[in-house]
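Dear support,

We are seeing what looks like truncated structure output for some complexes. This example has two components. We would appreciate it if you could run it in full and send us the complete token output so we can diff it against ours.
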Amino acid sequence: MSIWLNDKTKVIVQGMTGREGTFHTGNMIKYGTNVVAGVTPGKGGESHLGLPIFDNCSEAVKGTGATASVIFVPARFCLAAVQDAVVSGVKFLVVITEGIPLHDEIKIGALVRKEGVIMVGPNCPGIFSVGQASMGIMPSSIFKRGNIGLVSRSGTLTYELVDLISRAGLGISTAVGIGGDRVIGARFIETLKAFNDDENTLAVAMVGEIGGSDEEEAAEIIPSLSRISKNIVGFIGGRTAPPGKAMGHAGAIVEGNKGTPQSKVEALESVGVPVPEKLSEIPDILKGFIS
Amino acid sequence: MDFKEYQGKKVLSERFENVALGLVTSNVRDAVGYSSEVGFPVVIKAQVLIGGRGKAGGVKLAFNQEEVKSIADDILGMDIKGHKVEEILVAKAVDIKEEWYMSITFDRANRSMTLIFSVEGGVDIEQVAHESPEKVLKMPINSLEGLEISDLKKRLLEAGLNKSHVDELVKIIISSYAMVVDKDLTLLEVNPLVLTDDEEIVILDCKMSVDDTAEFRQSALFEMNSEDGDAREKMAKKQGFSYVHLEGDVGIIGNGAGLVMATMDAVKNAGGEPANFLDIGGGAKAEVVNNALKLVEGNPKVKSIFINVFGGITRGDEVARGIADVVNESAPRVPIVIRLTGTRAEEGLEILKNETDLSVTDVMDEAAELAVKLGDES
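Here is the complete output from our reference environment:
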């Protein structure tokens, strides 16, 4: 029915008592997400939004049986928050926080890989399983339920595409904003594999952007995704961006001959993934896949 | 943020003894005075944030006072790939026996820092890497475990270095990596790292970059403020949004890096050229939009402006408020096209329709075409 997150998933929120955490946790609960607790060091024993607050994840997991955590803490505390979550045994993490220093991101990435934790982000809008649950900040009003999986490096471009898909009469199973930072947890590869294993997802739209080589690496494994390999459409943002300039996302930068839009488009097209120039062409291509 | 050579060396000298610090000056007389003090020959180097200084004539040896005077005169004020030389570094030349290359840099493919070392350093390192990659040692560094010292020693010995040099180098590399982590550096490159005739290992040149997101814990480094970047880009950063100056004439404002990049692409698809990238970020308030619009309009090349906002955290009515305030304060110099959708877009469109006579639409491709067309006509 969805990947990584459903209406049963017990979710804790790290940084729930902060301004952002409060606002978005409220929306997540309203949407039906099974939020069971918050974690704020020093506020253990209090309650917030009608939920218990714990000092750390280990106590929250012990007290509630949570298996997933979404992190809203400020950048400077994020490495510690991820360490806390990983030790607690949580298996799925979403990190919304932006502006985490590179060396902290490298350690966070290495830690979750070592411990086998799936992490979405950092610096991302989160994950949204339509009709079930949300971990993050995606606006629920634009979603319709359906069979399209969506994975994107960009936040607002995710909303843009969801909106186009909804207006075209199609719907989403799960949307994952993997983030545009230099080091991220789940990349296209892991997310596409998860969609391949989700019977409810019939086609996938992947929104990439300039910088790095995640799209090229994804292209290498796409032929092995027997169920969805022929039903993937791609998009690359920043085709007109000049080399050497980071376009807002720390990761969206063409360095030397690496990360160019041409190389990404060619890699995807070579494995049969169409990559239209306009986002607005995507819904029709998706319709072609699932009709 | 990137550091000029002398700034990077100053940082390195906190931990290393053998750094060719020399004297930094923008004054020819000081250069002459310093050279007479330390003795000839001296090397005179342009201090700019761009590679290839040597090949551009920005690095020269001088053997007496007259040469120092004429070379310093030449290099100061020189333009190297668009960077004006305002400072030179003067240092006593060393007798070089061997030139090595060492760097520690972020390696995106491995999602880690990587150590790169070569016994064939110097100005042609890129050629060496290209033609004889086997002469370039690359070791990804595990951020949780640190450097693997025994492996590093083994590979340096295999590269043909003798044992005493290897022992010394390993110490340098360990200290370098510690510095990279402690100071949040994204790049530390020492090229060349030289072995002198006296068997000393000396840091002769360096490139250093510190991670912008680590400013909150590296304030001392950021106070050195070496940026000589675009004035508009700096101003934008102060005002809380991200701006990149481009060469076209369609000004672009949007929320979210991905959407702004897609907006640039849409303008290009419609036959136009983007004048800039400007991301007002998530949750931007009216005042930010107001400042962004002023900045873009202030670029004399801009002939039309396309504002593309998808309300999520950013509210459409806030954005509309900012736009309305600017255009009501003074009539815009160029046509403005607005595409607004998402959270509170209807309220926003209402504000724009009632208070302004700007072009408004909710379809991105149409808006891009209109912005290009209006720009061509103006």
